[in-house]
Design brief:
Blueprint (H helix, E strand, L loop, with lengths): L1 H8 L30 H4 L1 H12 L4 H16 L4 H9 L1 H10 L5 H14 L3 H23 L8
């Protein structure tokens, strides 16, 4: 009861705060360039920006790692990709539940939703695109989480 009251009375109210967003141009062209190479920003620039945003919004590396491990487990399944798509799509309601329980921020749901949309296009999009991108986000978040005062160096 007390915790809910504190949340209600905080300033600025949650609904009035500027909502974080994904980086400009984020995944608009997908994970790959015209030759099928992973775009550098998928591995470096965007994951670093996302990690800082997730950290500011209170996402812990353990929670992020839990989702990443779930995605990695889907990759390891000895099933045709069409069958694994069901499990990839299930990441969306799972992250929605986490946001609803307030164990993950809204921006993390936006991130998962955007990536799942692209990841189901092909096995290549899932493994070389989404998982490589997600792994970079996990690495950067752990890095910034361990810096003094959460991310400034």
């Amino acid at each position: 009861m007390m915790q809910r009251r504190e949340q209600r009375d905080r300033y600025p109210p949650r609904t009035e705060r500027r909502q974080p967003s994904l980086p400009p141009g984020y995944l608009q062209g997908g994970y790959f360039d015209k030759e099928g190479n992973v775009l550098p920003e998928v591995i470096q620039e965007w994951p670093e920006q996302l990690a800082r945003t997730f950290l500011r919004e209170g996402l812990k590396s353990t929670q992020l790692r839990r989702f990443f491990n779930r995605a990695r487990a889907i990759e390891q399944q000895a099933l045709p990709f069409e069958r694994r798509k069901e499990d990839i799509l299930s990441l969306k309601p799972i992250v929605a539940a986490s946001v609803g329980r307030e164990t993950a921020p809204d921006i993390f749901k936006v991130f998962i939703d955007r990536n799942v949309h692209l990841a189901i296009n092909s096995p290549e999009s899932f493994s070389r695109g989404f998982l490589a991108h997600f792994q970079s986000v996990v690495a950067y978040l752990k890095y910034y989480e361990n810096l003094p005062r959460g991310g400034s160096r």
